[in-house]
Amino acid sequence: MSQASIVEFVRELYQTNDFIPLHAPKFDGNEQKYVLETIQSTFVSSVGKFVDEFEKKIESYTGSAKAVATVNGTAALHASLYMAGVQHGDFVITQALTFVATCNALYHMGAEPIFVDVSPISLGLCPKAVDEFLTQHAIVTDTGCMHKQTKRPIRAVVPMHTFGHPVELDELIAVCRKWNLTLVEDAAESLGSFYKGKHTGTLGDFGAVSFNGNKIITTGGGGMVLCKTAELGAHTKHVTTTAKVPHPYEFYHDEAGFNYRMPNLNAALGCAQMEVLEQYLIEKRELASRYQDFFAKGDFKFVVEPEYAMSNYWLNAVICPSAQARDTLLKQTNESGVMTRPIWQLMHRLPMFKNAPRGELTQSEHIEMHLINLPSSPISI
Ligand SMILES: *Cc1c(COP(=O)(O)O)cnc(C)c1O
Fold first, then answer.
1. How far is the CA of 138 from the centre of ligand 1 (A)?
2. What is the CA radius of gyration of the chain?
3. CDD domains, alphabetically (predicted)?
């Protein structure tokens, strides 16, 4: 299979000779109507019916006990880690193969990442690798899990469902129980992805979703914390909205809170986008299946959902036979107006995380060198 035939195939999928982006938002539902309604009502900011409505829609779709809307996915992660009790000086186990926001959120809690390898099946955090790292480097004490060498607490595990493909959650939950760790799912990319019938982000203590412009649905910018219980949900809402104690006119705040609330204007967009999510999921599955057929012959390996999961196929990906084939494909496609992208550089290569402890990262390094993301906007079918 030649790189040129890939360009041709993508052009055929999208039926256009124009530039093809990696993932473009689509507003062909009630977006204009709802957004206009917020403007006309003047309730564009922190008060308004769409925030509540959007949270309820996400709760009923994901099965989360309480969903809390935030300004973006990074804020949702930050609030999740705060709620999970991550403290200054703690370690948090995560994958090196992720978008930088995962690590920024824990860094701004005063914590430091520990990088563990990903599974070749999910491209997300590998439960076995986590257990092996902990067996070698940690002990469980009266106060929780401790990193032996530094005597610092290891507080939480943050897996990321890469491109929407759910990680092996049952196994990861078992590892977290064994080592007394809190599980926070970075579900930024996985709205619409299910693990054994359960929505990603609802199996851990907290899950963080993103509605950035390139995600499966968008609110312009936005995020959501999925909380395990109504009580944790109420506290999360409180702390993400300045922790003000309700009173007709007094200002009293009982905790150092965040101003992370999602504006009503953005939530209006979210409500309209939730109405078309199911349709996008169908279109994206169809797109993925066409890519899968196309790549079935040849030595480029299309990334498919793990057998235990129903993935949203947020970003389609292919593993190239060599680093050189990857570079050629990147160059050819982008020069031909078909946008493709390499995966993120591994987190331990970035200056702020270069000294973080890490296990073996064989799979992460292989994927980093060989993977390319392909155009993934929903197609008309
Ligand atoms: C998009 C994304 C985020 C952050 O979401 P924002 O809404 O852009 O802040 C976090 N983690 C991962 C893995 C993401 O892809």
1. 29
2. 21
3. AHBA_syn
Residues whose CB is less than 8 angstroms from the CB of residue 32 and which lie 6 or more positions away in sequence, other chains included? none
Closest CA to 288 of 308, 271, 310, 268: 310
Tell me which of 97, 162, 200, 212 to substitute to probe ligand 1's pocket, judged by most ligand atoms within 8 Å of the beta carbon.
212
Distance, CA 249 to ligand 1 centroid (Å)? 36
Say if domain 3-26+277-374 classifies as CATH 3.90.1150.10.
yes
Q: What is the pLDDT of residues 160-169, one digit of tens each?
A: 999 999 999 9
Strand ordering across the sheet containing 371-374: 301-302, 316-319, 371-374, 341-342
Nearest CA to ligand 1 atom 7: 73
- C-alpha 139 to ligand 1 mean position (Å): 32
Which fold would CATH assign to domain 31-274? Aspartate Aminotransferase; domain 2 (3.40.640)
Per-residue exposure over 237-265, b if at least 16 CB sit within 10 Å of its own CB, e if not = bbbbbbbeeeeeeeeeeeeebbebbbbbb
pLDDT in tens, 296-313: 988 999 999 999 999 999
Domain boundaries, the chain: 3-26+277-374, 31-274
Q: Which of 22, 70, 78, 99 to mutate to test the pocket of ligand 1 (most atoms within 8 A of CB)?
A: 99
Specify burial of residue 354 (Cβ count, 10 A radius: 0-12, 13-18, 19+): exposed
**CA 71–ligand 1 middle distance (angstroms):** 12
Percent with pLDDT over 70 in the chain: 99
Q: How would residue 380 be classed by pLDDT, with cut points 50, 70 and 90? A: confident
Who contacts 310 (Cβ-Cβ below 8 Å, separation ≥6)?
193, 194, 197
Ligand 1 first shell, C-beta below 6 A: 72-74, 98-99, 101-102, 160, 186, 188-189, 210, 212, 223
